[in-house]
Amino acid sequence: MQKNEIEETKNELLELGFNVDSVGIVYWVDAIKIVKNNPLIWDMCDIYEKVAKKNITTSTKVERGMRTSIEPAKENIQKKYSYYKPIKNSTFLNLIRFKLI
């Protein structure tokens, strides 16, 4: 992912209303980068592990941080993607993945 793509990702997360006071937003940028570079990675545990390794933390902390930072953005995500079922971490990453196709 190029630097301008990373900035676009950050801006989109901010526009959606992600919690910027949580380290989870950094984890989201890393997770989206992983999905964009390899859309065949579907297992969230693998994604959490890759993000954790990059940030020198545990996959449990990554999952929790991502969940915390997405919470305030759920309604905006549903509106933007016209997806009105519950939003989980995997759901949002899949919406991003399908947007790439």
Short description:
The chain has 101 residues and is mainly alpha-helical. It has helices at 3-16, 24-37, 44-55, 59-70, 74-81, 89-100.
Number of strands: 0
User: Roughly what is the average pLDDT, rounded to an integer?
Assistant: 92
The main sheet comes to: none
Shape: globular
Q: In terms of per-residue confidence, which ranges show pLDDT below 50 for 5 or more consecutive residues?
A: none
* Helix content class: over 70%
Helices, by number, come to: 6
Taking all Cα atoms into account, the compactness measure Rg is 12 Å
Instruction: Give the DSSP E fraction (strand runs of 2 or more residues).
Output: under 5%
Q: N- to C-terminal separation? A: 16 Å
Can you describe what's shown?
- With 101 residues, the protein is mainly α.
- The protein is 71% helix and 0% strand.
- The chain contains 6 helices and no strands.
- The model has no long low-confidence stretch (mean pLDDT 92).
- Helix 2 runs parallel beside helix 6.
What characteristics describe this protein?
101 residues; mainly alpha; globular
Task: Compile the SSE list and pairings.
Blueprint: H1 3-16, H2 24-37, H3 44-55, H4 59-70, H5 74-81, H6 89-100
Helix pairs in contact: 1-2, 2-3, 2-4, 2-6, 3-4
